[in-house]
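Z., the sequence and structure:
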Amino acid sequence: MSKAENTKAYIVERTAPVFNKKGYAGTSLADLTEATGLTKGALYGNFKNKDEIALAAFDYNLELVKEIFFANSISFSHPVDQLLAIPALVKKNFPKIAAHGGCPVLNTSVEADDNHPSLKKKVAQTIKSSKKNIQSIIEKGIASGVIRKQADPSKYALIFLSVIEGSLMLTKITGDLAFLDVAMEKLKEIILTELKK
């Protein structure tokens, strides 16, 4: 990478947790200069504006969450094992994501819904992509005969996302891990009793 690319990557890495914790509106230029140790001129010499930094930071935060929550699930070849890996990884890795400020999809969606069309679009695309990924695992399981053919892949993908995001939010806001534990156990139960053939 060139020096300019290294600097941009450094800015994104250092500002990503700030945006995730404080939100777009709550993150000031002073927060960005403090996080990076760079001047306003150095920041805006690499990015056009705060919007551009925020969008890059969201992408960075999203990749971090994908890595923590979902990357290992694709290492399984069996669709049921892939599905079971998701709640197990969410539960196991919650402390890492909490330390980073929580789930960026949830954090950003609340703020960007009415105030930041570009971020809202990115969040919506992320949710659709996550739904599609879970749906495709279920479809693969139906095709290979290990998941019941009556199972509606779209419906169960929606259930997965709603339960995961809802339990992450409730756990983060209350500090009570029971929300996450019960929700992830319920997903496991759904996989084993409603989906698995």
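The radius of gyration is 19 Å. The longest helix spans residues 117-143.

Let me know what you think.
H.
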